[in-house]
Amino acid sequence: MAKNTLKIQKAYQYYCKGLSSKDIATLLNCSYRTIQGYISAYKWRKKHLPTNLALLAVSMLKRGYTLKMVAKQLGLSVSTISNYKRASTVKNQL
């Protein structure tokens, strides 16, 4: 039960950041129809949370996604994701 609640919360965060139900399903390893069910059942509205692609990209990298995978999921270039990663590393060293 708690695992499902955590998955719904993660799905909502991704949804608010502007990811499609198919992208969210890929990230959470479930069916996109499941995500669409969450959207319908909980009456989610688009973009309640501020979009911060840099934080999302870095968190995906920390979870083991490759630069190419993150770039494809977020619709950005690989070099942009690399820049986000480098900026995050520099910030953590300060």
In short:
This protein is mainly alpha-helical.
Structure overview:
The protein is 71% helix and 0% strand. It is elongated and about 40 Å long. The chain is built from six helices and no strands. The mean pLDDT is 84. With 94 residues, it is mainly alpha-helical.
Backbone CA Rg: 14 Å
What is the overall number of helices? 6
How would you describe the oligomerization state of the chains in this entry? single chain
Return residue spans where pLDDT drops below 50 for at least 5 consecutive residues: none
H-E string: HHHHHH
Sheet having the most strands = none
Number of structural units classed as domains: 2
Distance between the termini: 40 Å
Strand composition percent: under 5%
The average pLDDT value, as a whole number, equals: 84
The chain-level structural class is: mainly alpha
- Share of helical residues: over 70%
Principal-axis shape: elongated
DSSP strand count: 0
Tag the structure with descriptive keywords.
Arc Repressor Mutant, subunit A, 2 domains, 94 residues, mainly alpha
List the helices and strands and how they pair.
Elements: H1 2-16, H2 21-28, H3 32-41, H4 53-62, H5 67-74, H6 78-93
